[in-house]
Each structure stands twice: as structure tokens, then as C-alpha cells.
């Protein structure tokens, strides 16, 4: 307890300098945490993917659709348990700024493949019965203030016209990172319309979503499916859901590398600031440390004083920084909305923040502590006023 009081007194002997150092450390820890959270949110789709789901798409590009009659042939492949499908809708709600994912799906099979979308049974059945019905995630419903029974008009871009859906259900994610920013509606609705207006585009799907029993056989099952459609007009590429999601993340690889680099640079900068603070502190107390050695205190005591003071400042700044990151992340997540739907500070990020802060404290005190442990008593006492 005596040592703690001594460290506190020493740390705040120059309040302005210590306060400015703390401010810099808090800002650095917050920035590091926010950047880490952005990276985690970017990879959220990969991390929350199920190992029992496969995605089958066109071997050429996602923009090329697959025939609906592929579904029956995929069902016959050994290892495939469930087959569903989805189309990207890409509509606009009110204004282009209100972006959120919209998918036309086969409701019964699709929701069976995504049990993490917790939808009450009565709402689920209402959605199945209503051809113009739609279901959305909780986060999306709260963003726009939607309630069960509301009419949601969406202007189509890929599928022309204004499509009005009746909200029949709102799902909650099974986990905090489950995507709650999507809108799902009946694929049959747009297919019936296409049959009447653009027959050539009817009976095609964007991707097939497949359920398998044994994740260990995912690669083998994928090869079997693609072999079925080899040398056909529309060849397929089947991969795990995680690999499918990762293909989108890899498109932004340069941005992600830049974010990681910036987060490391921030830590290095604040490390230099802390080191400068501790060097100035040691230089000002040269006579004090020499006196301690003259009184018989071992060099290790001086080292502990410097490391203790540096770690105390780092711990205070780190704690404030971690605490400040939580409301900042909540505000940022609300601002970006559906762009980064799973924006939440993880325990791992908070641990890394705390570790980075303490690491800065240790490194910053290393050089001054080594210098002061080797101080000559006579030379040090010359600095006594």
C-alpha cells in the first residue's frame, strides 16, 4: 500500500505532463480498439458461418444465375441434406443511403438452414402463408421503426418496379454477432412476375444454399456437386459458406492491411510519447535516485519505482481507454448501421487493448530504468539543489 501511494504521488507530481500523457494513451487505446473492432466486424460473416452449409454458385461469376432445375439434381448428390436458394434483390428503400441486404429466398428451406435466425413460430407461419410477406432482423426493424404488419415499399434496381412487402416477422440473432440487418421475402413472388414480364429471366436463382450432415466431408461433397454440372451450359463452383464469405472480404484486402498497419503505428507513437515522459521523469529525479542508493537501497528498488510508475500510468490510461471504447463503438455501430451489422467490441479486443497499454508502459520504462540502475552516486548527488 505504501508503494502504491508513493507511485501515485510520483506519477502525478507533474500533473499537466502526466495528464497529457494519459490523454494520448487513452486516445491511442481507443483508436486501437476501434480499428480492431472494424476488422472483426469485416470478418464477422466468415466467423459466424456454419460448417454445415455449402454455397453453390456459377463458376463464372456471381452475376450469372443458375437454373432452378439444378435443385433436384443437387438433392440427389450423396451427403446433401437440404437444398435452398436465394437471389440478391438489390432494391432501394426511400433513398440510396438506406442500404441493407435484401434476398429473395425459398422461405421454408432457407430458414431451416439458418436456425440462428430466431423467429417466433406464429410469425414464421404467417410469413410462409403470405406470398408478399417479408421478415427482417431486429436491428433493421429498429433502425426504420418497422412493426409487424407494416408495408415496406422497395424500388427494384435488378428487378424493375416498386415492390411492396408486408412485414410478417422480426428475428433475433442467436448470438450477438448474428446478422440482424437483412430483409428476406419470397423468391416465388419475383419469379411469378418474371414469368409474366421477362420469361427468359424466370426460373433462375443466384446461389444455392446447401445443408450437409458431416462438415468433414464438405470438400468431397463440393467436388461431387461440381462434377454433376461439369461441361454443362452453367458450370458450378461449390464451397463452404466461410470460403464464400471470405471471397468478399478478400476484395478489401488492401484496406484491411492498411487498418492493421495504422493500429500498429498508433501503438508505436504512443510508446515513444510514454518513453519520452519516463525519460524526463528519470532525469528530473536523478538526485533522488542517487540519494536512495546512498542510503543503501539496491538498484532494483529504483528500477521497480520507474517500472511501477510507468505501468501505473499505462494501467490508468488503458482502463479509461477500454471503458471509453464501448460507448464509442456503440455510437459508431449505430451510425454505420447495416454496413457493418456485427459491430461490437469483443472480449479479445479489450484484452488486446489492455495488453497493448501495459506493453507500452513496460517498454517506455525500460531504457530510463536501466540508466538509473547504473547511476553513479557521486555524480547523481551533484544534482541536489
Structure overview:
By secondary structure, the chain is α+β, with helices and mostly antiparallel strands. The protein has two domains: 2-44 and 252-381, no CATH class; 60-234, no CATH class. It contains 15 helices and twelve strands. It has helices at 2-11, 15-42, 44-47, 70-75, 107-113, 121-129, 138-144, 187-197, 218-228, 241-249, 253-284, 286-294, 299-336, 347-373, 377-381; strands spanning 53-58, 66-67, 80-88, 102-105, 117-118, 133-137, 151-155, 162-173, 183-186, 204-205, 207-212, 236-240. Strands 1, 3, 4, 5, 6, 7, 8, 9, 11 and 12 form a ten-stranded mixed β-sheet that branches. It is elongated. It starts with a helix and ends with a helix.
Quick summary:
The protein has 385 residues and is α+β, with helices and mostly antiparallel strands. It has helices at residues 2-11, 15-42, 44-47, 70-75, 107-113, 121-129, 138-144, 187-197, 218-228, 241-249, 253-284, 286-294, 299-336, 347-373, 377-381, and strands spanning 53-58, 66-67, 80-88, 102-105, 117-118, 133-137, 151-155, 162-173, 183-186, 204-205, 207-212, 236-240. It folds into 2 domains: 2-44 and 252-381, no CATH class; 60-234, no CATH class.
Keywords, separated by commas or semicolons:
385 residues, alpha+beta, 2 domains, ten-stranded mixed beta sheet, two-stranded antiparallel sheet, 15 helices, elongated
| Oligomerization | single chain
User: How is the biggest beta sheet arranged?
Assistant: 10 strands, mixed
Shape: elongated
Tally of individual domains = 2
* Percentage of residues in helical conformation: 55-70%
Question: What is the mean predicted local confidence, pLDDT?
Answer: 83
**Could you tell me the number of beta strands?**
12
Q: Terminal Cα separation, in Å?
A: 30 Å
What's the order of the H and E elements? HHHEEHEEHEHEHEEEHEEHEHHHHHH
Query: Taking Cα atoms only, what radius of gyration do you get, to the nearest Å?
Result: 30 Å
Structural class: alpha+beta
